[in-house]
Amino acid sequence: MLHSSRLFARLGLLAFVLAAPALAQPALDAPLPFDPAVRQGTLDNGLRYYVRHNTEPEGRAELRLAVDAGSVLEDEDQRGLAHFVEHMAFNGTERFDEPELVRYLESVGTRFGPDLNAYTSFDETVYMLQVPTDSADVFETGVDVLREWAGRITLADSAIERERGVVLEEWRIGQGASERMNRTVYPVLFGGSRYADRLPIGTPEVIETAPPERLRDFYRDWYRPDLMAVVVVGDVDVDAVEAMIRERFASLEPPTDAPERTVYDMAEASGGAVAIATDPEAPYALVRLMYRGEPRRITTYGDARQSLVEGLFFGALRERLAEIQRQPDAPYAFAAAATGNLVRTVGASQLIAVAKPGQIEEAMRVLGTEAVRASRFGITPGEVERAKADLLRSAQSAVAEAENQESRALAMAYVNAFLEGEPSVSPEARLAFVEVYLPTITLDEVNAVAEELAAGDDRVITVTAPTDGSVPAEADLLAVLDEVADAEITPYEDAIVEGPLVPAPPAAGSVFEEDADADLGTITWTLSNGATVILKPTDFKADEVLLSATSPGGTSLLDDEAVIAAGGAAGYVGQSGVGAFDQTALGKALSGQIVSVRPTISGQTEGFTGSAAPGDLETLFQLVHLYVTAPRLDRDAFEAALAQTRGILGSQVNVPRVAFGDTLSATLANGDPRSRTLREYLGDLDRADLDRSLAFYRDRFADVSDFTFVLVGAVEPEAVRPLVETYLASLPGAGRDEAPVDRSVAPPEGVIEKTVRAGVEPQAQVALVFHGEIDADDNEDRAILDATADVLSKMLREELREDRGGVYGVGVRPSVDRDEDRYQIRIQFGADPDRVDELVDAVFAEIATLKAGEAESHHLAAFQEQQRRARETNLEENSYWLSVLTTAARYDADPQDSLDQPDIVARLTMDDVRDMAVDTLDEDQYVRVVLLPVEGATSTE
Question: Does the global pTM surpass 0.70?
Answer without folding.
Answer: yes
